[in-house]
Specification:
Helices cover 90% and strands 0% of the residues. The chain is built from 2 helices and no strands. The longest helix is centred in the N-terminal third of the chain and has 64 residues. It is rod-shaped.
Length: 113
């Protein structure tokens, strides 16, 4: 009977030990899972931030150097200024030529024929 009692105590002690070990391994597994989950979230956050950064850089490069960029706008404004100056010069030249034509037309009556 004593042997059975000691065996029963040993069995209950073993059960408690294994239950405690099982609980510890379950807690450890849960902690490892939480750490992995947090690590995956951090990595995905960093990757997302990097992708957003590169998209922003590409957009800004397009704004500055693309077909509809600030550089093109500045070039077009400079071209507009040059064309306005050229129109002004042509108007002045046209006025001089008209004046010369009218002076010659008054002096030479054969031009009107």
């Amino acid at each position: 009977m004593e042997i059975e009692l000691k065996m029963a105590e040993n069995d209950s002690a073993k059960d408690e030990y294994f239950k405690h070990q099982s609980q510890n391994t379950h807690d450890e597994k849960e902690q490892i899972f939480n750490v992995r989950e947090g690590l995956i979230k951090q990595i995905s956050l960093y990757i997302s931030a990097i992708l957003i950064f590169f998209a922003l850089v590409a957009y800004l490069a397009n704004v500055v150097f693309g077909d509809r960029s600030v550089m093109v706008l500045i070039d077009l404004q400079n071209e507009k200024i040059a064309l306005i100056g050229e129109v002004r010069e042509l108007k002045n030249q046209n006025a001089k030529l008209q004046k010369e034509y009218l002076e010659r037309a008054v002096l030479d009556p054969d031009i009107n024929k």
